[in-house]
Amino acid sequence: MARPRILVVGAGFAGVECVRRLERSLAPGEADIALVTPFSYQLYLPLLPQVASGVLTPQSVAVSLRRSRRHRTRIVPGGAIGVDTKAKICVIRKITDEIVNEPYDHLVLAAGSVTRTFDIPGLVENAQGMKTLAEAAYIRDHVISQLDLADASQDEAERESRLQFVVVGGGYAGTETAACLQRLTANAVRHYPRLDPKLIKWHLIDIAPKLMPELGDKLGVTAMEILRKRGIEVSLGVSVAEAAPDKVTFTDGRVLPCRTLIWTAGVAASPLVATLGTETVRGRLAVTPEMQVPGADGVFALGDSAAVPDLAKGDGAICPPTAQHAMRQGRVLADNLIASLRGRPLQQYVHKDLGLVVDLGGRDAVSKPLGIELKGVPAQVVARGYHWTGLRTNVAKTRVLTNWLLNAIAGDDFVRTGFQARKPATLRDFEYTDAYLTPEQIHARTASPADHG
Predict the structure, then answer these.
(1) FAD/NAD(P)-binding domain spans which residues (predicted)?
(2) pLDDT above 60 for 69
(3) Among 163, 166, 179, which residue's Cα sits nearest to residue 225?
(4) Cys-Cys with 49: which of 85, 99, 138, 176 at CB 3.0–4.6 Å?
């Protein structure tokens, strides 16, 4: 009898945690495990703002999936672009651009999320996101290059536009990105004697009436005070009306000369979700508390792409798209998958949120672990301690700790690599949101037996 084929899509917190638990708990001959991912590493997403600001190197937050020889999961280098739940086939575009059909008996969808965008003129053409390792590296290069170009320019209008930076999104990603990058430019400008530090202006805007409302009013106000004390202009109840290569128009009518627009206004479930044709909740796959997809035999979903019921909160709440939930869901889902293979009952996912941490760079931070409100150095210790313990390997922990110590002792460096210096990159370039198939294209492929395998 053939071994059951388990296919896991996505190497984020949820997918990797699920795979590792399956490897530890299943006997070698009990099932075949495959993991679909375009990059053979797990990205520690919450630390991307520190990569963008140069505090951490890219390698320190990318944990290799091939490093350990004892793991037996087959890595499929590519991205899932469609699923036929009736034929039990996942359509994959390999990194070579070859499209193949991957049959499965059990499918785990941990496809994560993409940057949520809106129909704003010029947005996808002129904005950068903060969702991938390449985006963080690109933004660092881009921001430093604006200082270099402003320093080289004799045109006052050009200089002004290059030294104004806009971050959209008052959540954790946007707030940390604005704070960390502002700190980078403030330190860097000391080495540019021709540039007036007063010309460098950072703007953080969000359509919501509060900054990081999940922190509560008190810590939200504290974070706002820290940002404004640093010179970051925070505008709430405002969004982008139009984005151009050299200016941004806000919904309140202001027009800002600007060459840098960083868009972090929330996330949306991976476009892969739409290819299944099953029920969704706020764009995420509807699943049971056991993380099964109703009406799709053998399909489980978790993490950012799934609307997992938050039984700890009740009242129809769904789990927020955080690493904390994704990791724990991965473990529970692996146990449920093993239980289904062995004919045992499945368990429901229940987890009470442990709190929130926001690293604003340097000694500035606000944290709310287990409901306890902290700010300053104690909050920074909690924030970095939480992230450090969340790193999966000792190698990653050593690299991150070394980077933190080196930055604290030696300060920032302002070297740029010249990455895509002559070709502006967009959200679509990094996140491949236009790569997915339609349901009709999927069925056309899976209907042909010759394409299977």
Answers:
(1) 5-330
(2) no
(3) 179
(4) 176
Helices then strands, counting H and E runs in the chain, come out as 12, 24
Dihedral of the alpha carbons of 386, 387, 390, 395, in degrees to the nearest 10: -130
**Are the C-beta atoms of 27 and 128 separated by less than 8 Å?**
no
Which amino acid is residue 138, in one-letter code? Y
pLDDT for 75 equals 94
Contact 269, 258 (CB under 8 A): no
Taking CA atoms, 334 is separated from 186, 311, 348, in Å, by: 46, 19, 12
- Taking the C-alpha atoms of residue 56 and residue 156, their distance in angstroms, rounded to an integer, is 33
d(CA 175, CA 167): 8
Q: Is 223 helix (H, G, I), strand (E, B) or coil?
A: helix
Averaged over 59-79, what is the pLDDT? 85
pLDDT, tens only, 324-336: 999 999 999 999 9
Res. 70: pLDDT tops 90: no
Burial of 115 (C-beta count, 10 Å sphere; 0-12/13-18/19+): buried
Strand segments, DSSP code E, in 184-320 are 201-206, 233-236, 240-244, 247-250, 255-257, 260-263, 267-269, 280-281, 284-286, 299-301, 306-307
Q: Are 275 and 436 in contact (CB under 8 A)?
A: yes
Element (H, E) at 332: helix 323-341
Q: Which residue is associated with the tokens 């969004």? A: 239
- φ and ψ at 146, to 5 degrees? -65, -35
Q: Checking DSSP bridges between strand 374-375 and strand 365-369, what pairing results, if any?
A: antiparallel
**32: Cα within 13 Å, side-chain hemisphere:** 13
Return the residue matching tokens 């990059």. 39
Helix residue spans in 35-85 (DSSP H): 48-52
**Confidence (pLDDT) at 215:** 83
Q: What percent of the chain has pLDDT over 90?
A: 75
